[in-house]
Design brief:
Strands 7-6-5-8-9 form a five-stranded parallel sheet. It has a four-stranded parallel sheet with strand order 2-1-3-4, sandwiched between helices. The chain has three domains: about 160 residues, 3-Layer(aba) Sandwich (Rossmann fold); about 160 residues, Rossmann fold (3-Layer(aba) Sandwich), CATH 3.40.50.1370; about 40 residues, SH3 type barrels, CATH 2.30.30. It is an alpha/beta fold. Bound molecules: zinc ion. Its EC number is 2.1.3.2. Pathway: Pyrimidine metabolism; UMP biosynthesis via de novo pathway; (S)-dihydroorotate from bicarbonate: step 2/3. Keywords: Pyrimidine biosynthesis, Transferase. Belongs to the aspartate/ornithine carbamoyltransferase superfamily. ATCase family. It catalyses: carbamoyl phosphate + L-aspartate = N-carbamoyl-L-aspartate + phosphate + H(+).
Length: about 425
């Protein structure tokens, strides 16, 4: 059955007014994602995140039914730096929906090696395809793409900045294990300074509320202040920081492991001492709750011992599957293609608590957190982030948003770094 036939048969159905109502409300939310780009999960509402999670669950059990959802569509995977597993996940997602894929991996294979800007590449490629998944080493590159074309862009990682589909995979994995995303104690362990997946997961869980975060890291790799600020601004969330995994492992409902990289340390002795502290083994897991899933964005180096893989708590390969399912849900949604036979479950209903929740600054937790360029920002502002794309593609217009009106704090629209006034 085609999408059009499915949509019309749903509309014509009068067997149950309740299911009709559900179909309409589902379409409303799904349609609101049609044509939309996703640079960060802050771009979309919690209702839309719920819908994507719900769709992914449906897709998993209806692979045949959804196999023609995106017939005739073409996805471009523009990978300016290699990330084979992420690229394969985006591509498999489109192929499993019936669409086709073009793209490049590694900037040396593209015109970028000849100095073409992201803007120009997107203006060319958008003529060929219906949706783009882009990974780029520079922070803000995905935002540049969204400014260049109206084709939906899905950020597949822009430097150390954002990687929204990894967070969707993490949320799906937590949801699968607990049936909820709140009332949890979530431990995050390892490199909490540079681990962008950790920042994004914390920020998104804050929007659902009622999470206690246990931040486990060496002093050199503590959670950045802007992430702590986000927890502090959310009344129902709290956190504690510790260096010692074993001291807290028994309290955790979820353990999210990340890689501690040697190059992040100035003191090699310190690195060697800490490295082993954070290697998760079956022996250490004996002190953890019997239902505590272990997550990891992969690839792992040695921070989770291989003997943990057979433990039912190991959830990191489940995350990989969930990543593909969430990309299927997201790709079909931004294309506005309805999944054949899908009807939303109760999970998509945003709770009254969520709807009314605001953070300490009065910002809604359920709505998208969209920043707008402040046209009156001082012209002397610069972005000090060397990894920001505005500092390598110098023709880009600098844009800043006001992050704090009391302190007159401005941040870069591209990479969210605090601006400097020179
Ligand atoms: Zn910047």
């Amino acid at each position: 059955m085609t999408n059009a036939m499915n949509a019309s048969s749903s509309s014509n159905s009068s067997s149950s007014s309740n299911s009709l109502h559900q179909t309409f409300s589902c379409s409303t939310i799904a349609n609101s994602l049609a044509g939309k780009s996703v640079v960060t999960l802050d771009d979309i509402s919690t209702a839309q995140i719920r819908m994507l999670l719900d769709k992914a669950r449906y897709i998993d059990s209806h692979r045949k039914e959804v196999a023609h959802t995106c017939d005739g569509r073409v996805l471009a995977t523009l990978f300016y730096e290699p990330s084979t597993r992420t690229r394969l996940s985006f591509e498999t997602a489109m192929l499993r929906l019936g669409g086709k894929v073009i793209g490049f991996a590694g900037a040396q294979l593209s015109s970028a090696s000849k100095g073409e800007t992201v803007n120009d590449t997107l203006k060319v490629v958008s003529n060929y395809v219906d949706v783009v998944a882009m990974r780029h080493p520079k922070e803000g590159a995905a935002f540049v793409a969204t400014q260049a074309v109206s084709t939906p862009i899905i950020n597949a990682g822009d430097g150390g900045h954002m990687h929204p589909t990894q967070t969707l995979a993490d949320l799906a994995t937590i949801l699968a294990r607990f049936g909820r995303l709140n009332n949890l104690t979530v431990g995050l362990c390892g490199d909490l300074t540079y681990g962008r997946t950790v920042h994004s997961l914390i920020e998104t869980l804050c929007r659902f509320g009622n999470v206690h975060f246990v931040l486990i890291s060496p002093d050199e790799l503590k959670t950045p202040q802007y992430v702590i600020d986000r927890i502090n601004a959310t009344e129902s969330c709290s956190y504690e920081e510790t260096r010692d995994l074993m001291e807290v492992i028994g309290n955790l409902d979820v353990l999210y492991m990340t890689r501690v990289q040697e190059e992040r340390f100035t003191d090699r002795e310190q690195y060697l001492r800490l490295r082993d502290t954070y290697i998760l083994t079956e022996e250490k897991l004996q002190k953890a709750k019997s239902h505590m899933p272990v997550l990891h964005p992969l690839p792992r180096i040695n921070e989770i011992a291989v003997d943990v893989d057979n433990d039912p708590r190991a959830a990191y390969f489940e995350q990989v599957k969930n990543g593909m399912l969430m990309r299927m849900a997201l790709e079909s949604s931004v294309l506005g293609d309805e999944l054949c036979g899908y009807e939303p479950t109760d999970f998509v209903n945003v709770t009254e608590d969520e709807l009314q929740s605001v953070d300490a600054h009065g910002i809604s937790l359920a709505d998208p957190r969209v920043h707008t360029t402040d046209e009156n920002a001082p012209e002397t502002l610069t972005c000090p982030n060397p990894r920001c794309i505005t500092n390598s593609e110098l023709t880009l217009k600098r844009k800043f948003y006001k992050a704090d009106s009391v302190r007159h704090e401005y941040r870069c629209m591209y990479c969210d770094e605090e601006a400097e006034n020179k």
